Amino acid sequence: MSSLKLDHLSKHYGEAVIVRDLSLEIANGEFVSLLGPSGCGKTTVLRMVAGLIAPTGGKITIGEREITVLPPNKRRIGLVFQSYALFPHLTVFENVAFGLRRQGVKGSELEKRVKDALALVRLDAFGDRYPRQMSGGQQQRVAMARAIAPRPDVLLFDEPLSNLDAKLRDEMQIELKRLQRELGITTLFVTHDQAEALSLSDRVCVMAHGNIEQFAAPEDIYHRPATAFVASFIGKPNRLAGKVASRNGAGGTVEIGGGVTLNADRLDVATGGEVELFLRQEAIELRTTPTEGPVNSIPGTVQLRSFSGAHVQYVVRIGANTEIVVEAPSSGAASNLEKDASVYLAVAPANVFALAAAEGARS
Amino acid sequence: MNESKPGLTITSIALLVILFLQLPVIVVVLAAFSSTSYLTIPPQGLTLKWFAKVLSDPVYLDAIRISLTLAVGSTVVSLVLGVAAAYALFKRMLPGTEALTSFLMAPLILPSVVIGVALLQYYSLIGWRGSFAALLLAHVIITVPYIVRSALASLAGVDMSVEEAARVLGANGFTAFRLVTLPLIKPGLVAGALFAFVTSMENVPVTIFVASAKQTTLPILIFSSVEMGVDPSIAAVSTLLIVATVFVLWLAERWTGFHRFI
Amino acid sequence: MSNWKAGVLLFGPLALLLIGVFLVPVLLLAPTSFHEYAPGVGIVANSWTLENYARIVTDDYYREVVWRTLYLGLGVTVSCLLLGYPVAYLIVRGPARLRLPLTLLVIFPLMLNLVVRSFGWIALLSNRGLVNNFLIQTGLIGAPLKLMFNLTGLMIGMTHIYLPFMVLMLVAALQNVPRDVEAAAATLGSSRSHVFTSVTLPLTAPGIISGSILVFVLTISALVTPRMLGGPTYKVMATLIYDEYMQLLDWPSGSALSFSLTVIAIAIIWASSRITKRWAGMA
User: Fold this and answer.
1) Same domain, B90 and B190
2) Signal peptide span per the entry (chain A) (predicted)?
3) A118, A188: one domain
4) Which of chain A's residues have a Cβ under 8 Å away from the Cβ of B176?
């Protein structure tokens, strides 16, 4: 077991910069997700760590071993592919045994270690099957067993759950987390699914355009987005255009038209500057009466109600014809508002993210 | 009734054409068993004497042996060189992949007779005429495009992440290819090798210019004996070839579900 | 980069072989074709001439052989198309259980030795061959028909040889015609033949073109069947090349003719790829 360190890693294809001077350190046994939209360079980072792509510059180190130029077979890495990449012509047993055989493990030792790996993913009875005879979830577990069996120093996951249906994905998430904690292997997990990244990881690294936007614990990523991009990418934000009306210490007030103003705890734009506001659907509370104190309270009218099980979604019109989507728990007080009902949107200033307009537009 | 189903007229024409396709085969087989030296309908009598004649004639036996050696040899060399080259092309290891692919396919585009005369002149010039190795290389040139084509097509059907998986699991490049990629492209390669084998087995236009008198292959033998007239022993040896072809096709189908690759 | 090195290692051997035993020999034909040839002496050293090419255009005999080759190619292509389309149609649109057996029956002759197939046609078409024997026996004709050593023989034999290629190309083309489009035309009131001419035929045109080009190029390049069914007298370009090299030893003429044949074949392939690309661009 070892830490994984990326040092000023970069990848260029001609003029195109896919990964830009990226540094990242993952502690021994830690679970880190690379989260970002497609094309942000996260998969390229993973493939460079695996040795499947040569970096243009920088250094990759596992523990004390520098592996930057080592071929993939000498890196002692486990990789779970998005497509699983199981060997279709080999049985499940032989798939899992593949890495062990390369290490020269044979006989009863081989048998035992394959069985152990299959037992970990609860597929002990499936050794004789071929991958095509198994369901997507089972194939996924075989892929995990295959990656784990040779006891790699670092485990890499490339969007491993994206080919599964929603229900199975939730199950596999839990299983994956349990497995990683049990084995304590340093893990780098690439995904574009924020819920997956937030729930699985010790720390999340949000990437955009080949750069790290924020590298922090899931709670920090969610509650204290460091950049415009993170604010717009995490959660389900409403996006509004506004103008800074006044500044007040670190925060200030933003006007969004129709005389509506919002207080924000943090504001990095001078008075009069154009900003983009991000209000998370789930961070807005619907009340029937105005709220006193520092909490923003905006009057509006319900336009549409849509029930989706655990939540109710409302479209609320505020100010001069601005529509805001609000997500309320279906067990809460505001679960049964009717169309045209008058409501007040309550938003804490800490949950109003305002960023310079040009910067926000980039994402 | 479905509008686009073939009607009775189309069906009858099509079946007649398919019969036309089998006609020479039927005639050759009938001639091989016919006791007269030219064919009649119905055949005058049945005999196996033409087969006996062929199988005891050292000229025919030599030709069969040379043809088989040449076909097996050139197929094996083509497989090794062709699969390696196709792999390099598929992985885009070299610049100008498209141009290089066309270059490997060029022997298919050029009329065989032109390749034949070019090699005749070249081999005479450098003193390779009559060398078996030179003849074998000539056959590699005309068979290798089939191997390259089938290898490229098969590789395109393989999810290359399986090879990457093998690499990450500790296999070096060659081992990953041998244990994972090669088994996955094998069916396509068998089909390609079969085409290569058949192409070598039946080649006249290149062989006839390059081969010396001592290297007479079976098709060359048949080709030149026909100038002396229709001899039923030619029909007999042709029938043996037909049987061999059917057998090889059957084997290939058994192994690989070959018809999917045509 | 190591990738590049591996590429050279993998691609290099075959590339060297193709350069040494294919490219260089073919290129070396060029100088030969500009040399003078003296009967009995051979190639005259240091003699450069365009005579070998001029002869192909001006000499009546050469011109006849070239034209014969080209219209043989055209004739074989047209008859392959006319005979092949119904077969392809039956394979694609006929009963599903007939599909594999019919396909195998089309492929089977293709896998058979070319020499054997041509020999079969000799047994059928010669003066004492099956066809003439049958016609004489039944009293339909008195003297044998001349079916070999002429255009008829070559047309029949070569149509047979190249028909499977055409059928396979047309099968692929027909498979790409969406049934819904035909059904749509039918529901819009088209008759069956109108659906065929207005929908099916245009949609299979790319397959028809590539099949035709293939058959045409193969036919004009063929040596074995023309030689076996045409004999030493009824010549096409390939058999003439053969004779000039093997019998007359007139290599300069032979290589000039070889180059002309190659240029015709490559020009046709090039032109057809241009046409199909334009079509693809329109679609």
Assistant:
1) yes
2) none
3) yes
4) 73
Point out the domain boundary residue: A202, A225, A248: A225
**Residue B225: CB atoms within 10 Å:** 18
Instruction: Give the CATH number of the domain where residue B88 resides.
Output: 1.10.3720.10
Q: In this model, does residue B228 exceed pLDDT 80?
A: no
Which residues are CB-contacts of C88 (< 8 A; sequence separation ≥ 6)? Answer: C167, C170, C171, C173, C174
Do A168 and A261 share a domain, yes or no? no
Among B218, B197, B206, which residue's Cα sits nearest to residue B54?
B218
Residue A362 domain-assigned? Answer: no
Crossing angle, helix B218-225 and helix B232-256, to 10 degrees? Answer: 150
| Interface size between B and C, measured as CB pairs under 8 A | 279
> Could you give the CA distance from residue C271 to residue C259 in angstroms, rounded to a whole number?
18
Which helix H or strand E contains C275, and what residues bound it? Answer: helix C251-282
Task: Specify the CATH number for the domain of residue A276.
Answer: 2.40.50.140
What band does C233 get if pLDDT is binned at 50, 70 and 90?
A: confident
Residue ranges for chain A with pLDDT beneath 70: 1, 358-363
- Tokens representing A168? 């199975």
Tens digits of per-residue pLDDT, C49-85? Answer: 888 898 888 999 999 999 999 999 999 999 999 999 9
Give the integer Cα–Cα distance in Å for A173 and A19.
Answer: 28
Contacts of A202 (CB under 8 A, 6+ apart): A30, A31, A32, A217
Peptide bond into C13 cis (omega under 30): no
DSSP bridge partners of A346: A285, A297
Measure the CA–CA gap between B74 and B87, rounded to whole angstroms.
19
Q: Is residue A283 part of a domain?
A: yes
Cβ-proximal residues to A259 (8 Å cutoff; 6+ apart), any chain: A319, A320
CATH entry 1.10.3720.10 includes domain C50-282: yes
Task: Provide the token pair at B240.
Answer: 């043996």
Task: Choose the final residue of a domain: A178, A208, A225.
Answer: A225
User: Which of A87, A113, A154 best probes binding to B when mutated, by most B CB atoms within 10 angstroms?
Assistant: A87
Domain that holds residue B43: 1-47
Q: Is B173 on the interface with C (CB under 8 A)?
A: yes
Is A208 in the same domain as A245? no
Q: Does B257 touch chain C (CB under 8 A)?
A: no
Residue at token pair 């005639």: B27
Probe site for chain A from B169, B177, B179, B185 (most A CB atoms < 10 A): B169
Question: Under an 8 A CB cutoff, do B10 and C86 touch?
Answer: yes
Amino acid letter, residue C145: L
Q: Which of B162, B167, B168 sits opposite A87 (nearest CB)?
A: B162
- Quote the minimal CA–CA distance from B102 to chain A in Å: 27
Return the percentage of chain C with pLDDT > 90, whole number.
Answer: 47
Which chain B residue's Cα is nearest to C157?
Answer: B24
CA atoms of B53 and A318, how far apart (whole Å): 102
Say which of B17, B116, B121 has its CB closest to residue C87.
Answer: B17
Question: The pTM is what?
Answer: 0.84
Instruction: State whether A153 and A207 are in the same domain.
Output: yes
A217 and A234 in a single domain? The answer is no
How far is CA C233 from each of CA C144, C236, C239, C257, rounded to the nearest angstrom?
A: 19, 10, 10, 18
| Least CB–CB distance from B226: residue in C22, C108, C122 | C122
Query: What phi, psi does A31 have (nearest 5°)?
Result: -110, 110
Does C15 contact B103 at a Cβ distance shorter than 8 Å?
Answer: yes
- Same structural domain for residues B141 and B18? no
**Could you count the other beta carbons within 10 Å of the beta carbon of residue C79?**
19
A125 touches chain B (CB under 8 A): no
- Give the contacts of B67 (CB within 8 A, at least 6 positions apart): B201, B217, B218, B219
Give the ipTM of the model, two decimals please. 0.89
Subunit partners of chain A (3 or more CB pairs within 8 A) = B
Structural domain of A276: 229-356
